[in-house]
Design goal:
Structural class: mainly alpha
Helix content: over 70%
Radius of gyration: 20 Å
Number of strands: 0
Largest sheet: none
Order of helices and strands: HHHHHHHHHHHHHHHH
Length: 328
């Protein structure tokens, strides 16, 4: 048992060191993006500056809701704490990113994988465009992802509590879609019911948030369904080549994503489809019988996807720098 713990700690240290290096590199490259406060960071930065001017928890929340459009309390409480201890905005974002890579490293190091599969997954994460977006702009979603990772971590290690999932949703409401994977397995205790009741005042805001995305344009709705449906179909065909049997929960997850694309649009939903599908692909390779054939196939897939992701990172970063120059 001690030997297993030492092996896990070694894996954690290696993975965390690599991802932490990526974190600081992206932080240095994206510093101008934070300081110039453009796009999403414009709203988050404005809120954070207002937060530093007030010491009231309730007043600060009103700034948070009015300036960012967010209602999720956990992200707000985290930023309130960062402001209280004197961190500036970029430092607060860096602390989020460190927690983010810590959670990823903890999850990966706790799973027994081959060295080659560890290497492929770390390369994939380090070159992932959506990880870059989480690092740089999608602040609330990132906090939700951290709790989502802890939710997965406790689930695969035998703890079926729904508390991390509730925290995940209270960080970013759209993370609730991930509960489609295993929601039927949870037992709702009295304690969890109390938490859900305490969150009752937030439900109208959740409804308001979703209604803001609804469009009456049938053509746009159809385009969202086709875009998300095509991506789901592409991954299903890929999985069928890897494994004859596809997990039913994963199919439910994809169908849920297609349905959600009608409400919140294709852009955000495709992120869930893409990342969920890629990590399910890692799972298939890990559990597959023809390990070498599947591993080689996965290397090809990740090489193509990583190349595309790096291209998107470079394009997005160049665009952000141009916007930063305009702000200056």
């Amino acid at each position: 048992h001690t030997k297993e713990i030492l092996v896990m700690l070694k894996r954690f240290f290696i993975i965390f060191s690599i991802l932490l290096l990526t974190t600081f590199l992206l932080q240095v490259l994206s510093y101008d993006v934070y300081s110039a406060a453009i796009r999403d960071n414009f709203h988050y930065n404005n809120f954070y500056e207002k937060l530093s001017e007030t010491k009231g928890l309730i007043i600060g929340y009103s700034y948070y809701h009015n300036l960012t459009g967010g209602s999720e309390p956990i992200y707000y409480l985290y930023m309130f704490l960062c402001s209280a201890i004197g961190l500036d905005y970029s430092q607060a974002v860096l602390s989020q990113n460190i927690f983010f890579v810590f959670s990823i490293s903890l999850l990966l190091s706790s799973i027994k994988l081959s060295l080659s599969l560890y290497a492929i997954i770390v390369i994939y994460i380090s070159t992932n465009f959506y990880v870059f977006v989480l690092f740089s702009e999608a602040q609330r979603l990132k906090v939700g992802v951290v709790f989502g990772i802890f939710f997965i971590f406790q689930y695969i290690h035998g703890n079926k509590t729904i508390l991390p999932a509730i925290c995940m949703m209270l960080s970013h409401f759209q993370m609730g879609m991930l509960l489609l994977l295993k929601i039927r397995k949870f037992k709702l205790s009295f304690y969890h019911a109390i938490i859900l009741l305490l969150a009752l005042p937030l439900y109208p805001k959740i409804l308001q948030k979703f209604l803001a995305y609804v469009t009456n344009d049938f053509g746009e709705t159809l385009n969202n369904i086709i875009s998300s449906g095509t991506l789901c179909l592409a991954f299903l065909i890929t999985f069928q080549l890897f494994s004859k049997k596809i997990n039913k929960s994963f199919i439910v997850f994809l169908l849920g994503c297609i349905a959600a694309s009608v409400i919140v649009g294709k852009a955000r939903i495709n992120i869930f489809i893409f990342e969920g599908s890629m990590f399910y692909l890692f799972y298939l390779v890990h559990m597959g019988n023809q390990r070498k054939i599947m591993l080689y196939s996965l290397i090809c897939v990740v090489a193509i996807v990583s190349s595309y992701n790096i291209y998107r990172i470079e394009s997005s970063y160049s665009h952000l720098i141009q916007l930063t120059g305009l702000e200056k």
